[in-house]
Amino acid sequence: MWPLRGHLGAHLELVPGWLQPSGDLCSRTQDVVLMRALRDMNLPKFVFEDVPLFLGLISDLFPGLDCPRVRYPDFNDAVEQVLSESGYELLPVQVDKVVQMYETMLTRHTTMIVGPTGGGKSVVINALCQAQTKLGLVTKLYILNPKAMSVIELYGILDPNTRDWTDGVLSNIFREINKPTDKKERKYILFDGDVDALWVENMNSVMDDNKLLTLANGERIRLQAHCALLFEASEGGTSQ
């Protein structure tokens, strides 16, 4: 048994018991579905060093089963076209990173992409947005650096004397993009910078199942289905 790094072990503890080997009770097709679900939903969560360990565990769990990654013909082609038009060399691993992010965002409204400066985080995010736009799903990205402003400038302030409310940068963007719409579109707020407990605490109720941003004036704004949150952070993920 390989020694597991802390975060790898933590992820694997979340794997439900019914995904354990089931012998003759499962057909080959069911094994393929289970293996792909376990592999593809968890692979994007691991750091580079943990990927071989995780794939080794998958191989032990499903011996002799070799399932290539699912290819989305239209989406993969759009991603490759976007990267080529932007002057990047087409690398299968880079294209797959965009696909991994696409798959992750199908089931989650908050996603963090972590990596060192120059590691390709922005390329993955922009390629995803441009590929979706090419396929008719117009995707708009609203980028802000929360570390470049105070919490008041970010979320807004309520004047204690007049009770007048002044929006912050984030609260203004959040309200605008979450207006009801019948358009076929996606809108993402990208927090470009390391996560700091000072400002991210107010986002907890947005990132959980409540999907509500509560402002100091008592206003509550719900994150709509066409919107999502993205965090782009360094390898540490957080800063003091």
Explain what you see.
The longest helix has 16 residues, at 92-107. This protein starts with 5 loop residues before the first helix and ends in a 7-residue tail after the last strand. Mean pLDDT is 85; it is low at 1-5 and 16-26. The protein is elongated and about 70 Å long. Helix 4 packs across helix 5 (92-107). The protein has 10 helices and 8 strands. By secondary structure, it is an alpha/beta fold. The chain has helices at 6-12, 28-42, 51-61, 73-85, 92-107, 121-134, 151-155, 169-177, 197-200, 204-207, and strands at residues 110-114, 138-144, 156-158, 165-167, 185-192, 212-214, 220-222, 227-233. It has a 4-stranded parallel β-sheet, with helices on both faces. It has a two-stranded antiparallel ribbon with strand order 3-4. Strand 3 (156-158) and strand 4 (165-167) form a beta hairpin. It has 2 domains: 25-69; 72-234, Rossmann fold (3-Layer(aba) Sandwich).
